[in-house]
Description:
By secondary structure, this protein is mostly beta strands. The protein has 3 helices and 23 strands. The radius of gyration is 23 Å and the shape is globular.
Amino acid sequence: RREVISKGGKGNDFRLFEDMPGGYDAWDIVATYVDREFELKDGIVKDIVKGDVYTMISIEKDVLKSKIEQNIIIYNDLDRIDFDTHISWHEDQKLLKVFFDVDLQTKNYTRDIAYATMECCSYRYNPYDKAKFEVNAHNWIDMSDEDYGVSLLNDCKYGHEVNEHKMILTLLKAPIKPDPKSDRGDHYFTYSLYPHAETWKKAKTLERGLEINHPLVPVDIKSEGEMGADKSFITLTSDSMTLEAVKKCEEEDAYIIRMVEKKGRSVDASVKFFAPLTYAAECDLIERNDVPVDFDGDTISFHATPFEIKNYKVKIK
Length: 317
């Protein structure tokens, strides 16, 4: 165990800035936004609830004409803190971000992007790094050394920054062009802090990011036994392969199964279906140019290279 937040630093620190980037009001953020910050009042704790599963701290914070209501959920048996957030947003040309001063110094950090991950510099040594002060990430960013790391997960907020030991998430903009009321109103979202041992790959940050974006939904299935039936439409054997799409084929009576290797390594894996197959082929992303592959009943075995997209067309008995 160790402190996540650096000594003298802050976590879950909401900060508001003037946002007047010029010609592309709804799209651009300029690097000098940090020079035009508004002073905000401290939030207040409205309630604390302790239970067998988690402790929940409810807070409120006024932001000029807007209000933040947030439930901070600290789990008893999960190494994750959720920030379940509601913001009533009524600003003009303002930018709201949340900062975490983490107790880490790493040269690079990792961000989750479409069908891959990417390493970026944590420091702004040169004009190229300074220009990349904010970057996109899908489900998470992570700062790790070999022994310890911190991941910042989100379920719908994609603008991120890392500046030395600060992990920053952009929450809301308030542009006046082309829509003078763009994004005004109520917003509901969740971001999470996930401290972990070792690297993001060993700590399963990829899986934690998927869990917050695609939570499990329980479904009752009739069974003769006391515990209920155990069924799965598709089962993947590799923890570095993610199932990205299951859909009907556009031009044939078949299913398309799309998977991708997300941890940057070569793997031997298999995908198992709920019933035996009658046909299996690897195809391209527009579902053509079939190359038939071997299968064993309900299972296809395959080899994937780092970040490779595997697209299969299957027919099920």
